[in-house]
Amino acid sequence: MSSKKGKTEIVIPKNVLRKPARFWDATAAIDVDEVVLKFTAGLQGYVQKALDNEGTGRKVNLLASTTYYYHADPETGLTRDEEGFYIREFFASREFGSLAFCDGAKQGIAVLKKSGIQPLFITNVPGAMDTSGDQHQPYSWGTAQRLRLKQLSEAGLVSVPEDVIFCSAHRKPVEMTEKLLRVPILVDDRPSTLVTASEDYGLIAIGIRTNQTRYNQRNHEGIVWFNSLAEAVPYIRAIFKKLAQLGLLKTSTAR
């Protein structure tokens, strides 16, 4: 399902509506990379700079990837081993801690907060004990999560560390439903994560896609797509307003 500005039908899965009264928190789970921060553009600049320093004249184009994993699309010019190596190095770099914000993302989050909806940022950033999928090496330094938390905090998006959850993509619905909070909405760019949230857990799945996310341009049943987080904010507010009217929120502050 795709959105038409100002005309998107509000669709709430039966699984969300069938919960007991005051079940859901007025909280929206929001992915960070390509929803709040421009990860691929930052990585593109980092990798190309490294290649330029080698003096080979070789070029890569990660933004051209039609697959979520860059190496799976030959057009990017990056092999699997190289992807693993450069991403691992990127997570420890100054560039990772200063990624550009997606247009309107900070303003959209401010609107959610003003509406009584608490953003919970769920992001797949490795810790020191995590192991690189391609390199099979521990990250050991563990700076990536600190850099991510520092950038979001300095931008005024989070107040306490608990506003950010670090976990793998497939664990996001678990964190939303089986932990302290009960979160009905996931906002993400990755189709497989959104499908898991929608199909496996019956949650509300909102997708964000832009001209820099060529891997998520197809429609999927159960996912409502928007061109930015800012564009999705009125839809998110309308959902929480409906849940509040139905008595399904723990608090009635969402408006």
Brief digest:
With 255 residues, the chain is α/β, with parallel strands linked by helices. The protein has helices at residues 14-17, 39-54, 80-90, 105-114, 144-154, 172-177, 191-200, 229-245, and strands at 27-30, 118-123, 164-166, 185-188, 204-208, 223-226.
List the helices and strands and how they pair.
Elements: H1 14-17, E1 27-30, H2 39-54, H3 80-90, H4 105-114, E2 118-123, H5 144-154, E3 164-166, H6 172-177, E4 185-188, H7 191-200, E5 204-208, E6 223-226, H8 229-245
Parallel strand pairs: 1-2, 1-4, 2-3, 4-5, 5-6
Q: Could you describe the 3D structure shown?
A:
- The longest helix has 17 residues, at 229-245.
- 33% of the residues lie in helices and 10% in strands.
- The chain has helices spanning 14-17, 39-54, 80-90, 105-114, 144-154, 172-177, 191-200, 229-245, and strands at residues 27-30, 118-123, 164-166, 185-188, 204-208, 223-226.
- Mean pLDDT is 92; it is low at 1-5.
- Strand 4 (185-188), helix 7 and strand 5 (204-208) form a beta-alpha-beta unit.
- It has 255 residues and is of the alpha/beta class.
- Strands 3-2-1-4-5-6 form a 6-stranded parallel sheet, sandwiched between helices.
- The relative contact order is 0.21.
